[in-house]
Design goal:
The protein is of the alpha/beta class. Helix content is 22%, strand content 12%. The chain contains twelve helices and ten strands. Helix 1 runs antiparallel to helix 9.
């Protein structure tokens, strides 16, 4: 019953051979955005951070990958227009104030181009006071843009007693503040340890010596115009290490999530847009604090500041700091003495924290009821 006639004495059909070819496209475009905490509490962690960044750079910052990298800080959100009034306000008590440190080196102090009369070079006084944006000159409307001079090296700040931890902490800003001594990026990446130098004290930009910059806010592992060789790759790693060394002079309200949203709003529709079409995208947060992204008031009053909706305990501040630093002269207080304090009077309910086996209760913290939900961040 060989009705088919295909195969004798069989009901089976002859097998047909077909050849299929499959092509698998692998997306090699990777865009990595690092969001690094640059507040004073990160000072002690700078070397550990650099060690981790160094390991990453040596493995992945190679021309065999198609990776683009940018680094922003957890206070990049200050570019939001709602903080313009705050940044243009005087730091309380600074009109006519004299810095002991600046007066000690007045013969080498040079007023910045953005304010030629910043310091009275005859008396050493800030005759017109100091604006909040003059503490950290990159705190402006371009802070969320990936521009050279902003996110390509440590954030520059005013080396003075107005920023107590910046001048007295591990960073020791006076080490790099003198523009007649070490300049450029070399000591930051390869400090002379035999002379007692360290990357923590050498990776510091100040108003007087703002010279540690790679010149590239966006770093690409793909060479353009120049063939990659060992020297090119070494420079690539060098640039990444400079960019990743954000320093610890940033704002104490660490808002990494809000900072990413600000970058997307201010940067991605410009010529410095970071994320490429069809790229694999990663956002890496590096911080020692929980995110403190708070809902930003789009129509703020004149007194609106980053510390609105914070809880504060004056007694705790005074027990942990010198009486001078929390007296209200510079605003590091919460009792609203003569309206000179940063923090609101919301009572005390800050949680205890444990970092590297050390447990403590912080004296200033964001009101948890005012935090921006993560789901809202994701939607945006």
């Amino acid at each position: 019953m060989n009705c088919t006639g295909q195969l004798k004495s069989s009901f089976r059909l002859a097998q047909q051979e077909q050849t299929f070819s499959a092509q698998q496209e692998i997306n090699t475009k990777i865009d990595l955005l690092w969001v690094v905490d640059n507040s004073a509490s990160m000072d002690v962690s700078q070397q550990k951070l650099r060690n981790g960044f160094s390991g990453f750079a040596k493995k992945y910052m190679q021309p065999t990958w198609d990776i683009r990298i940018a680094v922003v800080t957890t206070d990049t959100y200050l570019a939001h227009q709602s903080f313009y009034n705050y940044l243009n306000k005087l730091v309380p008590g600074t009109t006519g104030w004299k810095s002991t440190y600046i007066n000690s080196r007045l013969n080498t102090f040079t007023n910045p181009s953005w304010n030629p009369e910043f310091v009275n070079l005859s008396t050493g006084a800030f005759d017109s006071g100091v604006l909040f944006k003059e503490l950290v000159p990159v705190w402006n409307q371009n802070y969320a843009r990936l521009l050279p001079g902003i996110h390509d090296g440590p954030i520059p700040a005013l080396c003075s007693e107005l920023m107590p931890y910046f001048i007295k902490g591990t960073t020791q800003c006076a080490t790099r503040d003198d523009q007649t001594k070490n300049t450029g990026t070399l000591r930051c990446v390869t400090p002379n340890t035999q002379n007692g130098e360290s990357s923590v004290t050498q990776c510091v930009n100040t108003v007087q010596n703002d010279s540690i910059h790679s010149g590239k806010a966006i770093i690409s592992t793909q060479p353009q115009g120049v063939p990659a060789d060992a020297a090119w790759t070494e420079q690539l790693i060098h640039n990444f290490m400079v960019n990743a060394s954000t320093g610890s002079a940033g704002h104490g309200s660490e808002r990494g999530l809000s900072s990413v949203l600000q970058l997307l709003h201010d940067n991605e529709s410009t010529e410095t847009a970071f994320f490429r079409k069809d790229s694999l995208r990663g956002i890496i947060f590096v911080s020692d604090e929980d995110d403190q992204s708070l809902t930003i008031d789009e129509n703020p009053d004149y007194n609106y500041s980053p510390y609105i909706n914070y809880k504060c305990d004056q007694a705790s501040l005074e027990s942990m700091n010198s009486s001078v630093s929390v007296s209200g002269v510079n605003g590091y207080c919460c009792s609203n003495i003569n309206n000179n304090c940063f923090y609101g009077k919301y009572g005390t309910s800050c949680p205890s924290k444990t970092i590297e086996d050390f447990t403590y209760t912080i004296s200033v913290c964001a009101d948890r009821d005012k935090l921006t939900p993560v789901s809202e961040i994701k939607e945006n």
